[in-house]
Specification:
This protein has a 7-stranded parallel beta sheet with strand order 10-11-9-12-13-8-14, sandwiched between helices. 36% of the residues lie in helices and 19% in strands. About 1% of the residues have low confidence. Helix 5 packs across helix 20. With 689 residues, the chain is of the alpha/beta class.
C-alpha cells in the first residue's frame, strides 16, 4: 500500500469528500488511517428504562415524537423526543442539534449515552450520543467516536472506515523491531476494537511510533552538530574568580552551575549547543555576560542577539556596566543605531569584542573577524533561518559556540524528546531579595470595589528606591487587554465581554484623571512602541494599558502591579510571562487576574494563584494543553503529536532505548524510508544549529 497516495484512492471517497477531508489535513491514505477515534462509547450493558438512576447512563430503545422548537428567552433550539423500551419511556432533549429530529427511524433500535437528570421538575436524558444498535460490535459493545470535520460527522467516518476494513492488512510497518504487535494490527484495533485492553495496547504502539520519530530526529541533529568544529575557548579560573568576587551581588548556586557547564562546553572543539532556561528574573543575562567575558579572555568575539530594540538596549546598558571596566569593548547595533557603517567596520576589524543587537546583526554587511560565541535571547522568537544566519557569521569556517536563552521553562518530558539534541542548563533559583508576586483572582464586576483602591495605593506609593524612573511620582501599573479595538462579534457564542485597549484606557483616565495613562499595541509602528515603552521605563507614564505586546524581559523595576483582563482566555505559560513584568524591583508586587462573567475560576488560574514557580507551571500547562500548543510557542514549527502523551515518561524511556538500538545499524535508515521521511520535519523544527 502506498500510504502517501491521495485519500481519494480509498473506497467510498469521491472528489467532494476528498476536498472536505483536505481542509482538515487529511490528504493521504496515511492521514485517513491515522485519523483515530477521539473516544469510544461502551454499550456493553445498557440499563432498562425502569431501572434508570440519575447520572451517566446507556439506554437501548426506539425513539419517536421528535420535534424542534425555539426557546423564548434565549437564542436556543431545543429538540425533544421520547425513548421507549419494553420497561417504559423517558423524555430526551438536545440543545442546538436540530439535525437530531431527522436522524432516527422509528423502526430501528438505537443505543443512547447521556446524562439522566432532573430538568424542569422531570427526569430527562440530556444531549445523549446515539448510534444504531446494528453498528455496535455485539461481542465488545464498543463504538468509536470520531471528531466531526465540517459536514463529515462521526457516523460518516465510521461508514468510510468500514468500507476500507479489508485494506488494513496491507499497511506496512514503519518501525523495525516491535513484537508481537504490527502497525496494521494496532491501527485496526484502534478503529475496530474488540476490548478496552486492545484499545490501550493499540494506542501505546502508535504513541511509541510517534515518540520514536521525534527522539530519532533530535538524536540525528546531535550527530550532525557533533561533526562540526569550533574554536576552543579556554577557561581562565583566576580571572573568572576575580570577576565574580567584584560583583555587587552574590551569584545563585544555579548561576554558578550553569556558568561552569557553559565554560566546560566552550573548551571543546565541538560547538556548544546549549539552552539556558530560567524563570523571569533568575539571572540569565548575568550568565551570558560571564560567557562573553570568558570569550574576551581568549581574544574571541561574541554576539548577543535580542528580538527587540528595547531588550537589546536593556542588555547593552546592564552588560556594559559590568564588562566595560574590565576592558571589554561592547557595542550596540539596532535599526536606530547612528553611524552603522562605522560600527560595522569596527566589528569586522575585531575592535569590538561584544556586539549586542537585534536583526541588524543578521544583515549581510555585518561581519565579524573572529566570532566564537553567539548568545540568542528568547531564541523561540527567531526562525531557524535567522538563527543559522548569525551562526554562519564566523569567517574562520569554524562554527561558533551557541548559547540560546529562554524565559519560558520547558517541561522535563519536552526536554527529553523535542530538545534531545540540546544540552540544558537550568536556573531554578531566584537571586536573594526577590519577592514572590502576590496573585489574586478577581471577578471583573468586583474590580471597582477591590481593584481601584489598590491601584490608588500603588500609584501613590513611594517609587522603587534603587532603580526608578526619574520622572515617576509613584509606583507604576500594567493593565493587559485582549483586543486593540472593540470586537465586532458580540454574539452569545463569544461568552466573553472583551474590553479593548483603547476603551479601557479611556475608562481608566476617567477614574484616575490626575494620572498619565497611555496605551500600547502591536499595530503601532515600531518607533511608536519603543517611544511609549521608553516613557514608561522613565516613569512618565503611570498606567500602561497594553495587549500582550509588552515585551518578555523588559525591566521596569518601578512597575509593581499588573492587571490581566479576561485572564481565563490566556494559556498558563503566557499568564506567567505576563505576571513576570512586575516584581523586578525591591518593592512588593501584585498581579490581579480579572475574570469575566460569574464562572468558577479555571484550573489554570488557580494554579497560577498558588505558585510562582515557572517550572511547576510548565508541567501543569503540558498536562492541560498538550505538547503541540506549548511547543509551538517555544519554537517556530508545529509539534503534531496525535497520540503520544509527553507525560508518559515510561514510554519515552522505552522509545529512547529503541532509538539507540536503531542507530547502531545505520543501514536501517536506508531500509525504513517512510521513517526517515517522517523525521525530516521534526529535524527542521527541533534544531538550533
Amino acid at each position: 500500500m502506498d500510504l502517501f497516495s491521495s485519500v481519494e484512492e480509498l473506497p467510498g471517497i469521491g472528489p467532494k469528500t476528498t476536498e472536505t477531508l483536505k481542509k482538515y489535513g487529511i490528504r493521504t491514505v496515511k492521514d485517513f488511517f491515522y485519523n483515530l477515534p477521539r473516544d469510544y462509547e461502551n454499550y456493553e450493558a445498557p440499563t432498562s428504562i425502569a431501572e434508570l438512576r440519575p447520572g451517566k447512563v446507556v439506554v437501548k430503545g426506539r425513539i419517536d415524537s421528535l420535534s424542534t422548537r425555539r426557546a423564548k428567552s434565549k437564542n436556543l433550539a431545543i429538540t425533544e423526543g421520547v425513548i421507549r423500551d419494553p420497561s417504559g419511556a423517558i423524555k430526551v432533549i438536545w440543545f442546538n442539534q436540530g439535525y437530531r429530529a431527522k436522524q432516527f427511524s422509528s423502526e430501528k433500535e438505537y443505543l443512547f449515552t447521556g446524562t439522566y437528570e432532573l430538568r424542569n421538575g422531570r427526569y430527562s436524558l440530556l444531549s445523549p450520543s446515539a448510534v444504531a444498535a446494528t453498528e455496535v460490535d455485539p461481542s465488545s459493545g464498543l463504538a468509536p467516536i470520531y471528531a466531526a470535520h465540517g459536514s463529515l460527522k462521526s457516523n460518516d467516518f465510521k461508514r468510510l472506515m468500514e468500507k476500507s476494513r479489508g485494506l488494513f492488512n496491507e499497511i506496512p510497518d514503519m518501525l523495525p523491531f516491535i513484537e508481537p504487535t504490527t502497525r496494521a494490527k494496532a491501527l485496526f484495533a484502534a478503529h475496530f476494537p474488540s476490548s478496552t485492553s486492545e484499545i490501550t495496547e493499540a494506542r501505546e504502539y502508535l504513541a511509541y511510533e510517534e515518540l520514536f520519530e521525534l527522539i530519532l530526529a533530535s538524536r540525528l541533529n546531535r550527530r550532525e552538530n557533533d561533526k562540526l568544529k569550533a574554536m576552543p575557548i579556554g577557561f581562565d579560573a583566576t580571572k573568572i574568580r576575580e570577576f565574580v568576587g567584584k560583583l555587587p551581588f552574590r551569584l545563585t548556586n544555579a548561576q554558578r552551575r550553569a556558568a561552569w557547564e557553559i565554560f566546560q562546553d566552550m573548551e571543546k572543539d565541538v560547538p556548544m549547543n546549549r539552552l539556558l532556561q530560567g524563570d523571569v528574573g533568575s539571572g540569565k543575562t548575568m550568565v551570558a555576560a560571564m560567557s562573553a567575558y570568558e570569550a574576551f579572555l581568549s581574544n574571541v568575539q561574541s554576539a548577543i542577539l535580542a528580538p527587540t530594540a528595547i531588550l537589546a538596549n536593556q542588555h547593552f546598558d546592564g552588560i556594559s556596566k559590568i564588562l566595560k571596566p574590565l576592558g571589554v569593548k561592547v557595542a550596540l547595533l539596532t535599526g536606530a543605531t547612528k553611524q552603522k557603517d562605522e560600527l560595522k567596520k569596527k566589528i569586522k576589524s575585531g575592535e569590538i569584542d561584544l556586539a549586542i543587537g537585534t536583526h541588524a546583526l543578521l544583515t549581510d554587511d555585518t561581519e565579524f573577524l573572529k566570532l566564537g560565541l553567539v548568545v540568542i535571547d528568547e531564541q523561540h522568537r527567531f526562525g531557524v533561518e535567522q538563527r543559522q544566519k548569525i551562526i554562519l557569521k564566523s569567517p574562520s569556517g569554524l562554527a561558533p559556540h551557541l548559547l540560546a536563552m529562554t524565559a519560558t521553562p520547558i517541561p522535563r518530558s519536552l526536554q527529553l524528546t523535542v530538545f534531545g539534541d540540546l544540552d540544558m542548563s537550568i536556573l531554578n533559583e531566584m537571586p536573594a531579595g526577590r519577592k514572590a508576586i502576590s496573585t489574586t483572582i478577581l471577578a471583573e464586576v468586583d474590580s471597582k470595589e477591590r481593584l481601584y483602591p489598590k491601584m490608588r495605593e500603588i500609584l501613590s506609593s513611594k517609587p522603587d528606591t534603587k532603580r526608578h524612573g526619574p520622572k515617576s511620582h509613584g509606583q507604576q501599573i500594567y493593565w493587559i487587554c485582549k483586543a486593540i479595538e472593540d470586537p465586532k462579534n458580540t454574539s452569545e457564542e463569544t461568552k466573553l465581554e472583551i474590553t479593548s485597549v483603547k476603551k479601557r484606557c479611556a475608562r481608566l483616565r476617567e477614574v484616575f484623571p490626575d494620572k498619565c495613562i497611555e496605551f500600547l499595541h502591536g499595530k503601532m509602528k515600531p518607533a511608536e512602541k519603543d517611544a511609549v515603552m521608553e516613557r514608561f521605563s522613565e516613569g512618565e507614564i503611570d498606567v500602561l494599558v497594553s495587549t500582550t505586546v509588552v515585551e518578555v524581559g523588559v525591566d521596569v523595576p518601578n512597575a509593581t502591579l499588573i492587571v490581566i483582563e479576561n485572564a481565563e482566555s490566556y494559556g498558563l505559560a503566557q499568564l506567567h510571562q505576563l505576571r513576570g513584568r512586575v516584581g523586578r524591583g525591591a518593592s512588593a508586587a501584585y498581579c490581579y487576574l480579572l475574570t469575566s462573567g460569574d464562572m468558577k475560576p479555571t484550573r489554570r488560574l488557580q494554579e497560577l494563584a498558588r505558585s510562582n514557580d515557572g517550572f511547576h507551571l510548565a508541567e501543569v500547562d503540558l498536562k492541560l494543553r498538550g505538547p503541540g500548543e506549548i511547543y509551538g510557542a517555544l519554537q517556530h514549527g508545529a509539534l503534531d503529536l496525535r497520540i503520544a502523551t509527553l507525560s508518559d515518561t515510561k514510554l519515552i524511556t522505552k522509545a529512547q532505548k529503541g532509538v539507540e538500538e536503531f542507530l547502531q545499524n545505520p543501514e536501517d535508515m536506508l531500509r525504513y524510508k517512510e521513517l526517515m521521511s517522517g523525521i525530516s520535519k521534526y529535524q527542521q523544527i527541533t534544531t538550533l544549529n
